[in-house]
Design brief:
The protein is built from 13 helices and 13 strands. The chain is an alpha/beta fold. Among the domains are: 3-135 and 210-256, Rossmann fold (3-Layer(aba) Sandwich), CATH 3.40.50.620; 323-362, no CATH class.
Length: 362
């Protein structure tokens, strides 16, 4: 039986779908203001492996991964380069697709973009306002009332009392509480914007996923996934928005890929240890990189280094050497049942790829 570690409950438990034989899975995608880095690759490959395995087992998986194509970072980068937001995002989305194709990552079933879902996002905000979970401020922004939602903090373990004590109150702040977060941002002169009942503006980061997951899957998701930095505040805010608006559980299982470290340090541009996927692929075969990314359990951190990639290359070469002269098409249909069962058992144990990779070894 498939067992999944749930970030919400902090336990591993049997997976029970909302609908027999079907899985609705939403994974937070990339904000396309720059080339994808090796951390993005970790998330892409991890959920690609999961989806492939589940479909191999016979599950009907509806895999949705969004694209954030309007955002403060995007607007800033476009201005720095003297190009339009649309031009920048078009190039970065094309580059992202090139990178995932190089890593043998299959495209999700749906890839909704923020700019293509403005009506859905605005309608979602209107529903929150109607239920008194959100309010329009005097400056044209719309905010979510965090302290009205009783379950706030259940995913990340953050307590509103602690957040409130550490929050800064700015002079002239238009928010009712320093904890409230923005759903709709009023546009400044010259900024990319869309019309709304509250004036021209654009969505806040968190609201987009609540609206797009609703449209692509429904009110409750079987699985919601993402990177290691998303439980707070992004996913916490998604829960608050969605459960307030829809009146039901937002996601039954929360899954988060582990971080990528570089020589035991956090990957960061400021530390000059930031590597894009295409930079890595200049020096290493895509199969080696994919093997490296699956050689550690998806939830654990993985250390990116020259030695780690060389070890992955050596391990992959041993696999190929063992298969030399063998017709793999025939072997694939005649694997001894005990070895296939070892593989299935490993993957059903919260997608334990290191154990699965060793399952066929004698």
């Amino acid at each position: 039986m498939l067992q999944i570690y749930n970030t919400l409950t902090r336990t591993k438990a049997p997976f029970t779908p909302l609908q027999e034989g079907k899985i609705g899975m939403y994974v937070c995608g990339v904000t396309v203001y720059d080339y994808c880095h090796i951390g993005h690759a970790r998330v892409m490959v991890s959920f690609d492996v999961m989806t492939r395995f589940l479909r191999w087992q016979g599950w009907d998986v509806n895999y949705v991964r969004n694209i954030t194509d309007v955002d403060d970072k995007i607007m800033k980068r476009a201005a720095e380069r003297g190009e339009s937001v649309e031009s920048l995002t078009h190039r970065m989305i094309a580059a992202m697709h090139e990178d995932e194709k190089a890593l043998f990552v299959e495209r999700p079933d749906h890839e909704p973009r923020v700019t293509g879902n403005m009506d859905n996002i605005i309608a979602f905000i209107e529903r929150l306002i109607a239920k008194d979970y959100a309010y329009a401020a005097s400056n044209g922004d719309v905010y979510y009332r965090v302290e009205k939602f009783e379950g706030y903090g259940k995913l990340s373990g953050q307590q509103t009392e602690e957040l409130r004590s550490g929050a800064r109150v700015e002079v002239g702040d238009v928010k009712e509480s320093p904890l409230d977060f923005v759903l709709w941002k009023a546009a400044k002169p010259g900024e990319e914007c869309w019309s709304s009942p509250w004036g021209d503006g654009r969505p806040g980061w968190h609201i987009e996923c609540s609206a797009m997951s609703l449209c692509c899957i429904g009110k409750t998701l079987d699985i919601h996934g993402g990177g290691p930095d998303l439980p707070f505040p992004h996913h916490e805010n998604e829960i608050a928005q969605s459960e307030a608006a829809n009146g039901c559980t937002y996601a039954n299982y929360w899954m988060h890929a582990g971080p990528v470290r570089v020589n035991q340090e956090k990957m960061s541009k400021s530390l000059n240890n930031f590597f894009t996927i295409r930079e890595v692929l200049k020096d290493y075969n895509p199969e080696v990189v994919r093997y490296f990314l699956t050689s550690a359990h998806y939830r654990s951190y993985i250390d990116y280094s020259e030695s780690s990639l060389k070890e992955a290359r050596s391990a992959l070469e041993r696999f190929y050497q063992a298969l030399q002269g063998i017709d793999t098409r025939v072997v694939a249909d005649s694997v001894a049942p005990e070895y296939e069962q070892r593989f299935v058992d490993a993957m059903e144990d919260d997608f334990n790829t290191p154990k699965a990779l060793a399952s066929y070894l004698i």
